[in-house]
Known about the structure:
The chain is mainly alpha-helical. It has five helices and no strands. It has helices at residues 2-22, 25-49, 52-71, 79-102, 105-132.
Amino acid sequence: MYAMRRELQQYRQSGAMAEAETADPHRLIQMLFEGALERIAVAKGAMEQGNIQLKGNKLTQAIAIIGGLRSSLDHGKGADLAANLDSLYEYMTRRLLHANMRNDAEALDEVIGLLREIKSAWDTIPTLLRQAS
C-alpha cells in the first residue's frame, strides 16, 4: 500500500514538472496558487489528525510557494497593485506561521480564502485578454 502511494506521488510530481516545463508564465502562477492551496489543505488535515510533522512540512512548502508568488510580482508595472499583493502575501506568510505554532485552523481558512480570491481574479486574465483582441 505504501509503495503504491509513493508511486502515485512520484507520478503526480513528474506530471507537474512536465506541465511546468511547457507552461506559459500565466499558467505557472496558476500552478503556484494551486500548489499553495493544496499544501494548506493537507496541512489542515494533518493538524486535525495531530500529525505535527506533516503539518509543519506542508506549511513550510506553502510559505515557500507564497514566497515564489511574491518574487514574481513586477513592481515596475502596476506598482500599486504589486505593493498591495506583496503586503498581502507577507500577511499570509505570518498567518501560516501563526497557524503552525498555534494549531489555528481558522488562520489556515483565512489564507485559503485570500488565495482563492486572488487566484479567481488571476484565472480571469486570459479570458479578458482574448476578448480585448
